[in-house]
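Researcher: Go.
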Amino acid sequence: MPRLSAGGYHLGVFCPSCHTDDTKVVDSRVAEEGTAIRRRRQCLSCAQRFTTFERVDHAPLTVVKSHGGSEPFDRHKLIDGLTSATKGRSVSDQSLQEIAMRIEDSMRLLGSSVSSASVGIAALDELRTVDEVAYLRFASVYKDFDAVSDFHRELELLEKSAPGPSA
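Model: Structure:
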């Protein structure tokens, strides 16, 4: 564990120039939209300045598939699925990134291992509020629709869960 001395000196971070571990933090700022801390440091031996970042190191999140196998959670795979569902719709890439981040965060609250069904349901819940057509597209793949009646049933469920009259 890093050790701090009284003068703000930080022991344990090696200078990239001379490799001594006697450095001083000269500036700290929030970075990456609040998910990291950027620190400017100065080596007390050679006066070299360099930057370090502190980020939360999440425990790996594992997705248990319906066939019983498991794989690491892959945000890019989720974004690819969301992108397919929203193709040609007015949903920005930034919105998809935010949706994927919210889904990942909500899955982490469930533990280190979640079912693929939980991820799929979370994606459907997010898409329902963003774009109903994208929701139906995602549902048709996720729920393995094989007949028009599947779309009708899902559309009825969507209309029942709508917060108010549709325009």
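Model: The chain has two domains: 3-55, 62-161.
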